[in-house]
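Dear support,

I submitted the protein below through the web form. The confirmation email said the job was done, but the results page showed an empty box. After a refresh the structure appeared. I'm attaching both so you can tell me whether what I see now is the final result or a partial one.
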Amino acid sequence: MPVSGTSAPHTFAAIVSALRAAGCVFAEDEAGLLIREAPGPAALADWVGRRTSGEPLEYILGWAGFDGNRIALEPGVFVPRRRTQLLVDEAVGLLQCGRFPAPRIVVDLCCGSGAVGAAIARRVPGAELHAADVDPEAAKCARRNVGPVGGRVYEGDLFAALPPGLQGRVRVLAVNAPYVPTDAIRTMPPEARHYESRIALDGGADGLHFHRRVAAGARDWLSSEGHLLIETSEQQAEGTASVVAAAGLAVRTVRSDELDGTVVIGAAVVGSAQATAVPNSPVHSAHP
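What the results page shows now:
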């Protein structure tokens, strides 16, 4: 497809070349997407210019692919990562377990675009979905993604955003809170550190600030069969597991090398005030 404008690439090959020169690893795939999605030659020329200047492809397109669906995105809202597929897969597995009867209430906390909650709701018909984020722009974006699957979105700080009536009833509390240590943000790819909201990235000095806060409040919201699932990094998994165990939950850690994803899972312990802390339990691989 030709592109108008004297300074713009004119062919697929030229667009690929321009993207490659700008450091785009998947230049061919991105060029194909830009050509297919652009509403016209002028828009395509503009989009190629924005991409070669470093703007994330997802913001240019207005959506990101996740769990086989398109997730609407607004500039600055956290772009869903492939590794977060593991969080969805583990949540769906727990919800589909036949041992636990309805209701299947799901909370997507620190929801960002709502990608996690929307994916879970699509794969588990009948699940009751609630999502929350402190960032007004993220909450606005999440409504576009969560509304079509029957979910509700709230704006506010962690559990304070949720309806009190959910306390003690949540089957799955899925959390992809910021977990990048503050000093490590400067080492992130430019697409993230220059374009995504800082509030979506900064996890505090050790990256575990929000994990501590979530774990401390989780037991009040989980049902007796409930589970807390927190995405973390492989390097921080032991710290996240320790935080969750200290909150009185039985802990296991799941790792997928294929997705480069790590999820710490804490289970409510019926009849016990304190779970056995197992922060050093082996990390096992999941193969979705």
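Response: this is the final, complete result; the empty box was a page-load delay. Confidence is low (pLDDT under 50) at residues 1-7, 272-283.
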